[in-house]
Write a structure and sequence with these properties.
This protein is mainly α. It has a domain at 40-47 and 59-194. The protein is 48% helix and 4% strand. The chain is built from 9 helices and 2 strands, in the order βαααααααααβ. A two-stranded antiparallel sheet has the order 1-2. Helix 2 packs across helix 3, helix 3 (55-70) runs antiparallel to helix 4 (79-92) and helix 4 runs antiparallel to helix 5. The longest helix has 26 residues, at 152-177.
Length: 225
């Protein structure tokens, strides 16, 4: 009779040797340009600086929270799941819900995140169930931007944020399956992003690659002896 042992993977620590490529990568071989996620988290850190004694620690905590929320739901990363993700992140940052920050503190990246969350209120059921930015026509984006008194570029930034989260989510699941740890902060994510599936950086020409996602609670390693 064979005994089957199942070991659950934790998302931050995995009993596997360190990826040698993570150790040898350097700035010259893999230049790190500031992408939209790096800009987002640099902006969050800048907002946190206002009343935090340790902004680096606070930002790391929020980043890890965002990764956990990103990986909670199985299946395709639809705009409905993106809405749920934005809602959780905005509540954690006190941008919406009870005990929110004063309006004068919701500026810069905080305001951008809150606006992206508010954009979700104007999506149709069909748009909510899609994971493809191409479902949003120019007229649709114009209507959303006019409803919130923002620019069409702000709507494009929301679509790019969704696409980046979708690819990051798949990348994180694959790292777990391969026994590699997840980034614990946005700088570490940026550092190892050369291993990430590529995507186009322009909103108007975003790659729509379909991935097979797995439920975080179902990610396991089985060893048969």
């Amino acid at each position: 009779m064979r005994n089957i042992q199942i070991r659950y993977i934790t998302i931050w620590r995995i009993n596997k040797p360190k990826d040698k490529y993570d150790r040898i990568i350097n700035e010259k071989l893999y230049p790190r340009n500031e992408n939209n996620i790096t800009k987002l988290w640099n902006g969050i850190k800048k907002n946190i600086l206002i009343d935090s004694k340790n902004p680096d620690e606070e930002t790391e905590k929020y980043f890890q929270f965002s990764v956990q929320k990103l990986m909670e739901s199985p299946g395709r990363f639809t705009f409905r799941k993106f809405y749920n993700y934005l809602q959780e992140l905005c509540m954690e940052l006190k941008l919406i819900g009870k005990n929110t920050l004063p309006e004068e503190q919701i500026t810069g990246t905080f305001l951008q995140l809150k606006n992206q969350y508010n954009m979700m209120s104007y999506l149709t059921d069909e748009e909510f169930e899609s994971d493809n930015h191409k479902i949003f026509t120019f007229e649709t984006k114009k209507l959303i931007s006019n409803s919130l008194n923002v620019d069409i570029k702000d709507v494009d930034d929301m679509l790019l944020h969704h696409e980046t989260c979708k690819i990051d989510r798949t990348w994180y699941f694959r790292r777990l399956i391969l026994g590699r740890k997840l980034p614990t902060n946005f700088k570490e994510r940026d550092y190892i992003s050369y291993q990430r599936p590529s995507s186009n950086n322009t909103t108007n020409n975003i790659n729509n690659t379909t991935f097979v996602d797995k439920n975080f609670s179902e990610i396991i390693i089985s060893s048969i002896s």
